Fold Lipoprotein.
Amino acid sequence: MIFLLALIAILQSPPLGGGIEPLPLADDRACTADGTLCVGLTQQARDGEPAFTPVIRAPDALPTGPKEASGEVETYRPWDGLIRLSDGGFLAGVEKDASSLYSGGSGHAIELRLYRLDAEGDAASAPVLSVPIQGAVMIRACFTEEDMKRRAEACHDNYSFKGVLTVEAGVEEGGLPVLTYETTATAYPRGASRSEDSSEKPPLKPADLVTARDPRCSFSRRFAFDAKTGEYQPNSPLPDCSDYTVP
């Protein structure tokens, strides 16, 4: 029950950062507060695979786009934020929502794919930025009574992740605003790692039964647009946080 409550809290949309216009999400579209513009999805083929990109139109001109990738446990929806650009264009996003089920556990993660749209509301074919913004994973760790004793009855490893984008006010590089990406990652119990076998670790103590912040995957990066690559680039490489961001 505790994990389910935590999962619900984690997977609620995080508050949007400064400089990002909130868009209430309803069904297959996310619209501005005055209802004059809406972000929807269109499907394209890229490298033989389905790709979902955002499009901005007046509500009555917005196409109804598919939201599921065939054969995959993935759904797609418009990002509930919008960044207006000085040239009249936009930065709009698509959220890729993926989930998995394990024996006695589950995983859920959301990746934000940010696209540059022109003043007509049409997107380029590839995202300018892709970053994880949410994650929650529960891995079963007890299979016998001995496991329960050794784990102090904490029979699941729980991982959570949240990433938030903000816009640096009045700062542009490569013709697009500079973005800040801040993340928080936690694991329960302390010391839990998906890359290590929990059965080979020492027995848990009461002091270990806490949710601990992972300093490696709790970080801040500054993203500036690189006109040569056509993508946002971080001011330093991002660590591997797949423990938290791959369901």
The CA atoms of residues 46 and 139 lie 33 Å apart. Helices lie at 2-11, 145-150, 242-245. DSSP finds three helices and 14 strands in the chain. Residues 2-245 form one domain.
